[in-house]
Amino acid sequence: MKQYLELLKYILKNGKEKHNRTGVDTISTFGYQTSYDISEYFPLLTTKKVYFKGVVAELLWFIRGDTNIKYLVDNDCNIWNDWPFEVYRKSLEYQNETIKEFALKIKSSNEFAKKWGNLGPVYGKQWRNFNGVDQLMNVIKEIKNNPDSRRLIVSSWNPTEVKQMALPPCHSLFQFYVQDGELSCELYQRSADAFLGVPFNIASYSLLTYIVAAYTGLKPGKFVHTFGDLHIYCNHLDQVHEQLKRTPKKLPKLVIKRLPKNIEDLQIEDFEIIDYDPDPIIKAKVAV
């Protein structure tokens, strides 16, 4: 994963300070690309621990077309909690709960989760029902029937529904490519938090490529990551410098232990990471 460390160095060298909607300034660059060979190893960052169960939970949540955080919270994945919590915090029902107490209410009450856990028509909605089109299943069918197609695309950016989303899609479009029995994926990410988000995104779309390859009789090939606004938040700079002191280790391997007939029936337990030996986690605060 030297590519990832080089990405951080590139931002530090070439980026300019920029304001944004969160109120936390960034060191920002525009236009960058990395590529990872995922045919033998899985690109899970080793210079800090990445929460793989959270990666799997979020991806399966997308695949199922879900847009409520309850499934994530029930599976100890709290990466989306900040956005609905901010909405709840501004409501008349807010009773000075912490975000952890908010998550506990989501977990323990279906009624509370239904009212306060929805994020609007985010990724899963667009993947499975983009104005009535099931993009994910369509692209899987097309890979099987017409693998040389240049239209193997899924878009999460739906202009008619962006304003209804808690957070407009950062990873906004991905495309598959088939060659020599291998399936590759390229993601275009309009906005990328290099320290917190990008390691998660690399793992997520590589995992998606493994899954779609398994359902189409192919092997995983490459994951290509293309960025628009690629940035480091100014309150993450100490963490970035800490990470750059570390040396990448051998990458782990991914095993899919079970492949149910329907992709929606995949479970977190169906995936196993082997020989993952990362350096300790480096914590940082997400900008909402």
TrEMBL record:
Active site location: C170 (nucleophile), C170
Keyword Cytoplasm in record: yes
Enzyme type, top EC level: transferase
Domain Thymidylate synthase/dCMP hydroxymethylase positions: 2-288
Location relative to the cell: Cytoplasm
UniProt record similarity statement: Belongs to the thymidylate synthase family. Bacterial-type ThyA subfamily.
Function (record text): Catalyzes the reductive methylation of 2'-deoxyuridine-5'-monophosphate (dUMP) to 2'-deoxythymidine-5'-monophosphate (dTMP) while utilizing 5,10-methylenetetrahydrofolate (mTHF) as the methyl donor and reductant in the reaction, yielding dihydrofolate (DHF) as a by-product. This enzymatic reaction provides an intracellular de novo source of dTMP, an essential precursor for DNA biosynthesis.
Name the UniProt record assigns to this protein: Thymidylate synthase
Lineage summary: Bacteria, Bacillati, Mycoplasmatota, Mycoplasmoidales, Mycoplasmoidaceae
Gene it is expressed from: thyA
